[in-house]
């Protein structure tokens, strides 16, 4: 099937940018906060977009949705971020219909992740779909597609070893620290920011470094305390940030701030300090590299650090792709079947009209007419007829492009819209 029309003149698009062409700074320009995502969805609804989901992670920002032209979606993105259309055009991608579907499968299955096999994106897609549904912006097509992608993701995770080794930025950062320091368990580590990446990094630090000198700081202290309690860690006030940085050997920054929160002026220590910036937009000012004792590593650097399991994971790509093809075929089969639903619905409605008119006639002509029995028999006949036509349309042996038009012509049905 070449086109996926939910309503006349619209197609399914995937527009966005990722680590492949856009560096951390550019990705930061197009990063969406939770509030800006809601604003974008509200604007989409106002603009007549009927179904759309939005994702924004550390390595990509994407919109999947139906539009007459992809620029409608690009404009929504640019108007709700700090990015411009000119910037977008230089690094972006636009996929339509079949290519957009394939792209979502690759993204959700970890094959398009910055670190191969990173499945964290699938939870982002689930959350995005849930938010869109709450806003009334999730049609049956995208909802079914998301569920198919989730199914493929689960199968790939359980049936292949593509997720062995470091498969997330949070684990890759801990792996980097462990390779850099022999005595990492004795180093003072400060984690600033306890969002999703911060929480995952914290969990990996505790699990793999056996370090008992980990301190957490978050603007909202309660969030840090909730995580610290789980792992028996130290929590300090945001007001103590500079003091704690200067007492640390390793600083991990994973905040959701839109501007840098760390720069060279708050670093007063002379001892060696490793800073890992896991944030998009960047939360550590590049000017910290002017300090000879500071080493700055960004998440884009971490993704390029390969480990011994990477080649092994690459070997599982063909199997993962075959799983995607299998699930995608099932989705396309549903799609092909679904496009006939309006024709069947219109046929059933027409037959109901015939029935009602005939019952009305017989009611007037026959004394003691058994209306209940006639209604029962008529409905069963209608169901059998519509089922027969439905099976005909689903049968590959017939020309399914011509059949709906023939049914519409014979029964004088209104032209229907594809689903």
Automatic annotation (TrEMBL):
<dbReference type="InterPro" id="IPR015896">
    <property type="entry name" value="4pyrrol_synth_GluRdtase_dimer"/>
</dbReference>
<keyword id="KW-0627">Porphyrin biosynthesis</keyword>
<feature type="active site" description="Nucleophile">
    <location>
        <position position="58"/>
    </location>
</feature>
<dbReference type="Pfam" id="PF01488">
    <property type="entry name" value="Shikimate_DH"/>
</dbReference>
<feature type="domain" description="Glutamyl-tRNA reductase N-terminal">
    <location>
        <begin position="15"/>
        <end position="160"/>
    </location>
</feature>
<comment type="similarity">
    <text>Belongs to the glutamyl-tRNA reductase family.</text>
</comment>
<dbReference type="InterPro" id="IPR036343">
    <property type="entry name" value="GluRdtase_N_sf"/>
</dbReference>
<dbReference type="InterPro" id="IPR000343">
    <property type="entry name" value="4pyrrol_synth_GluRdtase"/>
</dbReference>
<comment type="function">
    <text>Catalyzes the NADPH-dependent reduction of glutamyl-tRNA(Glu) to glutamate 1-semialdehyde (GSA).</text>
</comment>
<feature type="site" description="Important for activity">
    <location>
        <position position="103"/>
    </location>
</feature>
<keyword id="KW-0521">NADP</keyword>
<dbReference type="GO" id="GO:0019353">
    <property type="term" value="P:protoporphyrinogen IX biosynthetic process from glutamate"/>
</dbReference>
<feature type="binding site">
    <location>
        <begin position="193"/>
        <end position="198"/>
    </location>
    <ligand>
        <name>NADP(+)</name>
    </ligand>
</feature>
<dbReference type="InterPro" id="IPR036453">
    <property type="entry name" value="GluRdtase_dimer_dom_sf"/>
</dbReference>
<feature type="binding site">
    <location>
        <position position="124"/>
    </location>
    <ligand>
        <name>substrate</name>
    </ligand>
</feature>
<keyword id="KW-0560">Oxidoreductase</keyword>
<comment type="subunit">
    <text>Homodimer.</text>
</comment>
<dbReference type="InterPro" id="IPR006151">
    <property type="entry name" value="Shikm_DH/Glu-tRNA_Rdtase"/>
</dbReference>
<feature type="binding site">
    <location>
        <begin position="57"/>
        <end position="60"/>
    </location>
    <ligand>
        <name>substrate</name>
    </ligand>
</feature>
<comment type="pathway">
    <text>Porphyrin-containing compound metabolism; protoporphyrin-IX biosynthesis; 5-aminolevulinate from L-glutamyl-tRNA(Glu): step 1/2.</text>
</comment>
<feature type="domain" description="Quinate/shikimate 5-dehydrogenase/glutamyl-tRNA reductase">
    <location>
        <begin position="179"/>
        <end position="305"/>
    </location>
</feature>
<dbReference type="GO" id="GO:0008883">
    <property type="term" value="F:glutamyl-tRNA reductase activity"/>
</dbReference>
<dbReference type="Pfam" id="PF00745">
    <property type="entry name" value="GlutR_dimer"/>
</dbReference>
<dbReference type="InterPro" id="IPR015895">
    <property type="entry name" value="4pyrrol_synth_GluRdtase_N"/>
</dbReference>
<feature type="domain" description="Tetrapyrrole biosynthesis glutamyl-tRNA reductase dimerisation">
    <location>
        <begin position="320"/>
        <end position="413"/>
    </location>
</feature>
<feature type="binding site">
    <location>
        <begin position="118"/>
        <end position="120"/>
    </location>
    <ligand>
        <name>substrate</name>
    </ligand>
</feature>
<dbReference type="Pfam" id="PF05201">
    <property type="entry name" value="GlutR_N"/>
</dbReference>
<dbReference type="InterPro" id="IPR036291">
    <property type="entry name" value="NAD(P)-bd_dom_sf"/>
</dbReference>
<dbReference type="InterPro" id="IPR018214">
    <property type="entry name" value="GluRdtase_CS"/>
</dbReference>
<dbReference type="GO" id="GO:0050661">
    <property type="term" value="F:NADP binding"/>
</dbReference>
<protein>
    <recommendedName>
        <fullName>Glutamyl-tRNA reductase</fullName>
        <ecNumber>1.2.1.70</ecNumber>
    </recommendedName>
</protein>
<feature type="binding site">
    <location>
        <position position="113"/>
    </location>
    <ligand>
        <name>substrate</name>
    </ligand>
</feature>
């Amino acid at each position: 099937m070449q086109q996926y029309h939910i309503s006349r003149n619209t197609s399914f698009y995937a527009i966005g940018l990722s680590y492949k062409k856009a560096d951390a700074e550019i990705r930061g320009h197009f990063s969406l906060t939770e509030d800006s995502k809601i604003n974008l969805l509200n604007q989409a609804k106002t603009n007549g977009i009927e179904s759309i989901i939005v994702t924004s992670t550390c390595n990509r920002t994407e919109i999947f949705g139906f539009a007459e032209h992809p620029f409608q979606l690009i404009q929504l993105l640019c108007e709700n971020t700090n990015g411009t259309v000119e910037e977008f055009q230089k690094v972006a991608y636009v996929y339509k219909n079949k290519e957009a579907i394939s792209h979502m499968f690759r993204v959700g299955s970890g094959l398009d992740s910055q670190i191969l096999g990173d499945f964290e994106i699938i939870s982002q897609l689930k959350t995005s779909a849930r938010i869109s549904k709450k806003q009334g912006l999730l049609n049956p097509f995208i909802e079914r597609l998301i569920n198919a992608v989730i199914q493929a993701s689960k199968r790939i995770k359980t049936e292949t070893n593509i997720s062995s080794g470091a498969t997330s930025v949070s684990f890759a950062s801990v792996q980097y620290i462990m390779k850099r320091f022999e005595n990492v368990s004795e180093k003072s580590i400060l984690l600033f920011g306890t969002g999703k990446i911060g929480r995952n990094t914290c969990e990996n630090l505790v699990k793999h470094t056996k370090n008992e000198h980990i301190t957490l700081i978050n603007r909202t202290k309660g969030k840090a305390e909730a995580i610290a309690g789980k792992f028996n860690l130290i929590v300090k006030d945001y007001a103590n940030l500079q003091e704690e940085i200067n007492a640390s050997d390793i600083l991990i920054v994973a905040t959701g701030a839109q501007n840098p929160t760390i720069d060279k002026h708050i670093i007063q220590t002379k001892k060696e300090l490793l800073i890992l910036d896991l944030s998009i937009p960047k939360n550590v000012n590049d000017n910290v590299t002017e300090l000879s004792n500071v080493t700055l590593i960004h998440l884009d650097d971490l993704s390029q650090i390969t480990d011994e399991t990477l080649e092994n994971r690459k070997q599982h790509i063909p199997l993962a792709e075959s799983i995607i093809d299998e699930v995608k075929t099932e989705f396309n089969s549903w799609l092909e079947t679904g496009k006939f639903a309006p024709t069947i619905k219109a046929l059933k409605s027409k037959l109901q009209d015939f029935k009602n008119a005939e019952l009305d006639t017989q009611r007037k002509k026959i004394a003691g007419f058994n209306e209940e029995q006639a209604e029962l028999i008529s409905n069963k006949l209608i169901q059998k007829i519509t089922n027969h036509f439905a099976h005909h349309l689903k049968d590959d042996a017939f020309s399914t492009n011509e059949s709906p038009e023939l049914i519409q012509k014979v029964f004088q049905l209104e032209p229907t819209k594809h689903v």
